[in-house]
Specification:
- The structure is a single chain.
- The protein has ten helices and 13 strands.
- The protein is an alpha+beta fold.
- It has three domains: 3-77, Winged helix-like DNA-binding domain superfamily/Winged helix DNA-binding domain (Arc Repressor Mutant, subunit A), CATH 1.10.10.10; 90-187, 2-Layer Sandwich (Phosphorylase Kinase, domain 1), CATH 3.30.200; 192-299, Transferase(Phosphotransferase) domain 1 (Transferase(Phosphotransferase), domain 1), CATH 1.10.510.
- The strands form four sheets. Strands 4-5-6-8-7 form a five-stranded antiparallel beta sheet, sandwiched between helices.
- The chain is elongated.
- The chain binds adenosine-5'-triphosphate (ATP) and magnesium ion (MG).
- Magnesium ion binds next to loops.
- Residues 102, 231-232, 245 line the site of magnesium ion.
């Protein structure tokens, strides 16, 4: 159970004000001083001190004893702020069981007021994972001093954006419903990751279907998934599939887009070759998709000129 969910009910308005004050303070300093918290929260010092003790006890903040006394949000503290915002606008009313823990995310079931089952994906960038952090650099750019809180938020915003583009072109992905800070809410799909699915009846049809979605994202959506593998394809009980995990998508005009596209295609081809002895040439598929994409671009520019 997400710790944040348990605490939402225990906290009062002024507790949230303090958490928010620390959040704002963390934009400019690693550890936020008591004076800053008092200033940003507009509460009296004694009130702040009393509540800081409570929040510290609940492990929602971290207390640093250096040359001054400073505070940081913990992951739980940041979760609380995001879940509160999402529940205030009724995107979710409850959080359920965990369904996945990735390298840089925690994924939970969530419910809205009509008891629809949704997914809350909490981005946690900054857990030790050098590779992913390297990938993230492309959109963090020069702002590399940013801490986990901002990196996680950027990652969530990015994924939300990717899912929205995919949804617009009716690609097979979960619909993104809402996001706040480092959490996104999306549709839930029952199923298993492709890598764990043993009973694929028509592997060739599935393979073609996945390639066709990759093509669609590129040609119609102008994006490349960027992290596609058998781990990020969900097979539903109806033998349909979905592509998930979009924070690393790139637009096709990004300098790395071709490299990413070839890697995505190669990952899928390799999986089907290993598991289903299916022969496919990633280079050929790649060339074909790029050719189609460029043809479409040319038509667009002609139309603009004409
Ligand atoms: N919309 C969804 N419906 C059902 N299950 C989902 C959904 N989104 C995520 N999951 C489950 O949670 C797992 C982790 O989600 P996701 O792949 O998006 O992030 P991630 O694996 O943490 O990213 P990475 O490990 O690449 O850092 C998935 O493999 C899947 O089992
Ligand atoms: Mg994944």
């Amino acid at each position: 159970m997400a710790k944040a969910a348990e605490y939402l009910l225990e906290l009062e308005k002024n507790d949230f004000r303090i958490l928010q004050a620390i959040e704002v303070g963390m934009r400019t300093s690693e550890y936020v001083s008591l004076e800053t918290i008092v200033e940003f929260s507009k509460l009296r010092v004694d009130q702040v001190i009393h509540r800081l003790d409570k929040l510290h006890f609940l492990e929602l903040i971290f207390r640093w004893k250096g040359n001054y006394l400073g505070y940081q949000l913990t992951h739980h503290g940041y979760d609380v702020l995001a879940f509160r915002a999402l529940s205030e606008r009724d995107s979710i009313v409850a959080i359920g069981l965990p369904i996945g823990r990735g390298k840089e995310s925690d994924v939970f079931l969530a419910y809205n007021a009509t008891q629809e089952v949704l997914v809350a994906k909490i981005h946690r960038v900054g857990r030790p994972s050098f590779q992913r952090s390297k990938k993230l650099r492309s959109y963090i750019g020069k702002r590399s001093h940013l801490n986990w809180l901002y990196k996680s938020r950027l990652s969530a915003e990015r994924e939300f954006q990717g899912l929205e583009i995919a949804h617009k072109i009716k690609a097979k992905t979960p619909r993104a419903i809402d996001h706040n800070r480092h959490i996104i809410i999306m549709e839930f799909f029952e199923g298993k990751e492709l890598v764990e699915s043993s009973a694929i009846k028509k592997p060739l049809a599935l393979f073609n279907g996945i390639i066709s979605e990759i093509r669609k994202l590129v040609v119609e959506g102008g994006i490349v998934h960027g992290d596609l593998s058998a781990y990020n394809v969900i097979i539903t009980p109806e033998n349909d599939f979905l592509l998930i995990d979009f924070p690393q998508f790139e637009p096709m005009d990004h300098p790395n887009s071709h490299e990413l596209l070839l890697r995505d295609i190669t990952n899928i081809c390799k999986f089907f070759k290993r598991k289903y002895k299916l022969q496919a040439n990633p280079q050929e598929i790649f060339k074909q998709i790029i050719a189609e994409y460029e043809e479409k671009l040319q038509k667009k520019t002609k139309r603009k000129k004409g």
